[in-house]
Amino acid sequence: MIEVKGLVKTYGTKRAVNGVSFSVRRGDILGFLGPNGAGKSTTMKLITGFLRPNAGTAMVDGIDVTLDPVAVKSKLGYLPESAPAYPEMTVEEFLGFIAEVRGFRAKDARQAAVERVIALTHLVSVRKQTIETLSKGYKQRVGFAQALLHDPPVLVLDEPTDGLDPNQKNEVRALIKKMAAEKAVILSTHILEEVDAICNRVIIISEGRIVVDETPAQLRARQPGARLDEIFRTLTSVDA
Ligand SMILES: Nc1ncnc2c1ncn2[C@@H]1O[C@H](COP(=O)(O)OP(=O)(O)OP(=O)(O)O)[C@@H](O)[C@H]1O
């Protein structure tokens, strides 16, 4: 569903993403790990078409993101790092607005899509509240809800549990797992336990390059008995 080959993105002289290649199939939950500044968000923005690569290609469901970004956007749901904008809109107004942008022209279809995601992400109790008055966990759910409106086959989630309390983290992870059988999911995280909890594959990126692409079990087997964070440190520490 996602096929990335030789992606390069430079900012000025900085190579934020430096020749990244990987693929994600339906049913995969791929954990994208790496230290701050490793290139996770930039890679996700290249896959979703928010940035153009200097070299390489990203294909979503067989469509080249650079050649047809509009078609690709209809295939994927993207949860960006930051919370949803439009703080003065209520939850249902915001989701209705995004549904319209997403192409739900008929009112009935729009309402049905909004109701589906409000139920799925447990937003019923806050649907009439403005976004600015929501807690961080609920804002995150609104971000999720907008990514799911058109029931896309591919989900790209940038730190989906960042800043949530343990209960909220569990809830979001359960939701991702529930949806994953039918979709290809890529999520970035700093949290190693998250990879163990929900991912069937893990990629570790360091300084714009992939240093690991394997299963969580294979990652653990690299240093039997070591904690995941120790293995992570070994793999991503930069020689002086
Ligand atoms: N718009 C930009 N202009 C210049 N440099 C940028 C820009 N966006 C990102 N960078 C740089 O590119 C590198 C990769 O950033 P990116 O945000 O992709 O990393 P990340 O792995 O997502 O980090 P984090 O975990 O902190 O979110 C970093 O060195 C960052 O400072």
Write the layout of secondary structure elements.
Elements: E1 2-11, E2 14-24, E3 29-33, H1 40-48, E4 55-60, E5 63-64, H2 69-75, E6 76-79, H3 91-101, H4 107-120, H5 136-148, E7 154-158, H6 166-180, E8 184-189, H7 192-198, E9 201-206, E10 209-214, H8 216-221, H9 228-236
Parallel strand pairs: 3-8, 3-9, 6-7, 7-8
Antiparallel strand pairs: 1-2, 1-4, 4-5, 9-10
Helix pairs in contact: 3-4, 4-5
The structure holds adenosine-5'-triphosphate.
Task: Give a written overview of the molecule.
The structure is a single chain. The protein is an alpha/beta fold. It has one domain: Rossmann fold. The protein has 9 helices and 10 strands. The chain has helices at 40-48, 69-75, 91-101, 107-120, 136-148, 166-180, 192-198, 216-221, 228-236, and strands spanning 2-11, 14-24, 29-33, 55-60, 63-64, 76-79, 154-158, 184-189, 201-206, 209-214. The strands form 2 sheets. The chain has a 6-stranded mixed sheet, sandwiched between helices. The chain has a 4-stranded antiparallel sheet with strand order 2-1-4-5, with helices on one face. Helix 3 crosses helix 4 (107-120) and helix 4 packs across helix 5 (136-148). The longest helix has 15 residues, at 166-180. The protein is globular, with a radius of gyration of 18 Å. The N and C termini lie far apart (38 Å). Residues 2-232 form the ABC transporter domain. This is ABC transporter related. Belongs to the ABC transporter superfamily.
